[in-house]
Amino acid sequence: QSALTQPPSASGSPGQSVTISCTGTSSDVGGYNYVSWYQQHPGKAPKLIIYEVSRRPSGVPDRFSGSKSGNTASLTVSGLQAEDEADYYCSSPAGSHNWVFGGGTKLTAL
Amino acid sequence: QVQLVQSGAEVKKPGASVKVSCKASGYTFTGYNMHWVRQAPGQGLEWMGRIISNSGGTNYAQKFQGRVTMTRDTSINTSYMELSSLRSDDTAVYYCARGNNYAFDYWGQGTLVTVSS
Questions:
Q1: What is the C-alpha to C-alpha distance for residues B94 and B33, in angstroms, rounded to an integer?
Q2: From the CA of B63, how many Å to the nearest CA of chain A?
Q3: How close does chain A come to B60, measured CA to CA in Å?
Q4: What pLDDT, on a 0 to 100 scale, did the predictor assign at position A2?
């Protein structure tokens, strides 16, 4: 199972919006409405910020939003803040009770 | 509150095995599956497999088939991941993560496994 494709890096100025893409295939991202996104700060465990493509767990700011079109999912961070600087990973079921992650995107607040 | 507490760091020699534990609290253990994810130094997340906490059934990523064994002890709300025939490229932080609605909603703090001769 190949990893989902994410850009290695993304950046934006504080207050701007940044979108991170996550491209898979019809066997994973395109085949399920269960894409999830994780935020990971250095030295910390990942934290769930989006599940089922666009749903936010309790406590996650609404400046984080998710969407999907075909085989590509996207995470948008609106009103970028300094504390949003972190690594972001997408994940999707991939059939036969398997899951796959994206390679990760390092988000920098300029 | 949901907590997943993992066992401490390990140093192993090539060819050895390691067993990492993950003790769950704050929820009904058998109501959620447990996944294992690893992260090599400076690298991304890699899904290894999952155990169905209720039945003990398992699904493993093809890459780890034959080398990984996931078990659980429902009497002490603990899941285990054992990886055998360790190589240097198995050096990584290993996480347990609770499965919920096809996502991983709570994560352990991670266990660093170092494989070195």
A1: 17
A2: 9
A3: 7
A4: 82
